[in-house]
Description:
Layout: H1 3-15, H2 18-25, H3 29-43, E1 48-51, E2 54-57, H4 59-87, E3 92-97, H5 99-104, H6 106-116, E4 121-126, H7 129-137, E5 143-147, E6 155-164, E7 166-169, E8 180-182, E9 190-192, H8 199-211, E10 217-220, H9 225-233, E11 239-241, H10 246-251, E12 255-260, E13 264-272, H11 279-303
Parallel strand pairs: 3-4, 3-5, 8-12, 9-10
Antiparallel strand pairs: 1-2, 5-13, 6-13, 7-11, 7-12
Helix pairs in contact: 1-2, 1-3, 2-3, 6-11
Amino acid sequence: xxxxxxxxxxxxxxxxxxxxxxxxxxxxxxxxxxxxxxxxxxxxxxxxxxxxxxxxxxxxxxxxxxxxxxxxxxxxxxxxxxxxxxxxxxxxxxxxxxxxxxxxxxxxxxxxxxxxxxxxxxxxxxxxxxxxxxxxxxxxxxxxxxxxxxxxxxxxxxxxxxxxxxxxxxxxxxxxxxxxxxxxxxxxxxxxxxxxxxxxxxxxxxxxxxxxxxxxxxxxxxxxxxxxxxxxxxxxxxxxxxxxxxxxxxxxxxxxxxxxxxxxxxxxxxxxxxxxxxxxxxxxxxxxxxxxxxxxxxxxxxxxxx
Length: 306
């Protein structure tokens, strides 16, 4: 087992794909594939399953990744410190975020910062849950915006907002005039999901569906909630989704309604565990928290409209 092979494995696990890992490592995609193949030969078990151009980690890969992450912790914390020192006070805030928050919460925050701090550059990388956490852990993001999860060494998690999920319907849908949508109302509906940013949500939803013996037609799935909203707007089905995107898509004609039983997911703001945040990042963090609360409140106001 060689270090370069381990680095390639770690990059694939962190980024979710061979192409993204190649970009992270600044090498070609075939080089990453070859390093992974060599590592599989070295450890004696399969690390990834290939499905339609995607790579899916095996259970053995997940176990190995935990060990790899522990072995890299010390170096990563040093790298985090060096990156943050290098980035400030030059003036860059690097954000890794779930797409729903990147689109639904960050625009007014960034607009305000651009007006007040024209010399500060803000970069936003839209990722899945694991990608956000790994970017913060690896020191590649100053702030991460994700679902609240169990603590991880090297990452500080602060509550951001508890979001009540809402039911999203196409314009003119048969349920659009209801004051709220009960899980039983969805029986027989074309349903869009799941959205893996919040797996805990789906345990609650699936339990409610099973308890009421509600059957959905799940003919369309997407990894993130933002495209699910777009598919609802196109009339492809209904969904239960995070509220951050609701105000935007409401302007495009989708119907937003409260969903019963109430399903809530806690979101968090993540930072590298390397001491106090620079003042400009602390200010940005506080502004994001205010904007997230406001966005959820705005979505629920829409859901309560007749």
